[in-house]
Amino acid sequence: MSPLPIIIDTDPGVDDAMAILYALAEPEIDLIGLTSVFGNINGPLAALNALRLVELAGAEVPVAVGASRPRVQDPVGDATYVHGEGGFGTVSLPHPSRLPDPRPAPQFLAKMCAARPGEVTLVAVGPLTNLAAALDETPEIARTVRSVVVMGGAVRCRGNVTPYAEANIWQDPHAAQRVFDAEWPLTLVGLDVTERITCNAADLAPMAERSPRCGAFLADAAAFYFDFHKRTAGIDGCHLHDPAAVIAAHDPSLFTQQTAPLAVTLDGDAIGQTREAETGRPNDICVDADIEGVRARFLSALHAGRLP
Ligand code: BDR
Ligand code: CA
Predict the structure, then answer these.
(1) Which of 3, 76, 257, 261 could form a disulfide bond with 30, CB atoms 3.0-4.6 angstroms apart?
(2) What is the 3-state secondary structure (H, E, C) of 130-175?
């Protein structure tokens, strides 16, 4: 079978870096593009970090620059307290020598899907601003995309930025509602499952040995992220939020899904909450996962030494 073509829409971010490097390391995935979005860090830095990651991995993956602010609401602020000032913990990668794709992210997404109708999976692991803009500008993308997988939401569990909201949805709830309402096949991979999938420093150590460049980077960048998780969640290691979404795109059989329409709370204390709704377009919501299977998939690709 030919590898699954995916585009990752990302706000890199430590777990974004894990997801991107995982996608590059997994032979059954063909990472055909990255689109950047504000979120964990500001918009311009997100674009630079996406370029830095493909350069680090020596990959020929185009990066298109996306949104720097939410669709409707005022920005709620970044998450450098989680991911570090530059997005990669305390690690600074060199300024990238390559340039971004000339097309803005929404146009890039639409063109890439139109060029390969029914083949491309979009994996969104940041605020959904670019995907919502692509739907506005090129509604046909809902028909040309193969499927959309979103890391976001806390449907049946507590949020991680407020008691109700998960960070990606909270950063741009109006975009999330637009994306959940669209006529495309969508799977939500939320905190319901991602907070149960973890890795720690010992898990990453073999990657640092076999892929010295990318592995050492990830091990160093993750240290700050591990500290955050130790302080706030009392765990040894971190949640694998964004890698879980890429793995769900690649092997949905590792996840248990239930189908329901999704609604996003757009004001009040619960703004950014992602709820199952009575009416609306049904989406697939991951409610459980083969936790060990997902972890094993992530680690085996990174341990294989396919990255520099
Ligand atoms: C999500 O928010 C960001 O901090 C992470 O990169 C992930 O996409 C988890 O809530
Ligand atoms: Ca992210």
Answers:
(1) 3
(2) HHHHHHHHCCCHHHHCCEEEEECCCCCCCCCCCCCECHHHHHCHHH
Distance CA 110, CA 181 (A): 18
Which of 150, 182, 185, 190 is closest to 275 using CA atoms? 190
Helix 212-233 to helix 14-25 angle (10° resolution) is 140
Ligand 1 lining (C-beta closer than 6 Å):
13, 15-16, 40, 79, 82, 125-126, 151, 160, 166-168, 241-242
Residue 129 pLDDT > 90: yes
* pLDDT confidence tier of residue 1, bands split at 50, 70 and 90: confident
Q: Which residues surround ligand 2, an ion (CB under 5 A)?
A: 11, 13, 16, 125-126, 242
Listed residue (290, 308, 218) closest to 13, CA to CA: 218
* Mutate-to-test residue for ligand 1 from 11, 172, 232, highest number of ligand atoms within 8 A of CB: 11
Span from the CA of 1 to the centroid of ligand 1 (angstroms): 31
**CB of 225 within 8 A of CB of 242?**
no
